[in-house]
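sorry for the late reply, my laptop died twice this morning and i had to redo everyting from scratch. anyway the thing you sent over, i finally got around to it. pasting the sequence first so we're on the same page, its 142 residues, then the predicted structure underneath. double check i copied it right bc i was rushing
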Amino acid sequence: MATQIDKEGCREAYNQVRDDNSDVCWAAFQYEGSRIVPAQQGADYDDFKALCTDDARLFAYVRFTTGDSMSKRSKFILITWIGENISGLQRAKISTDKTLVKDVMQNFAKEFMISDLKELDQDYLCGELKKAGGANYDAQAE
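ok and here's the structure:
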């Protein structure tokens, strides 16, 4: 059966993460049978990391505040989490299903496919966002 996505529910969660007036900084999306649906969302990134278990496969849209001494701004990333215990067939399927997710979550600075908890480290992800962001005025102070 072909995977479907709850566009309305996912778009609502996506917009909450994008809203500067919202404390929500992440939203996770999981499989419910053959549908991708909103799972959880929150203001604490560690709560999201707790969802990333060896038996889970999910997508997440996350907001980080990045920048340098001259400018701070919100940057967004799309994470595909594939736990170590996920079968080869499900691993392959998540790659094709990601196109459905990208139809809803179109604005992000960087995309990550992760299966190791160490790669979910906030400092690592922010460093990658900083590299992708271009100008780094903090470098002048070094």
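DSSP finds four helices and six strands in the chain.
thats about all i looked at so far, will dig more tmrw
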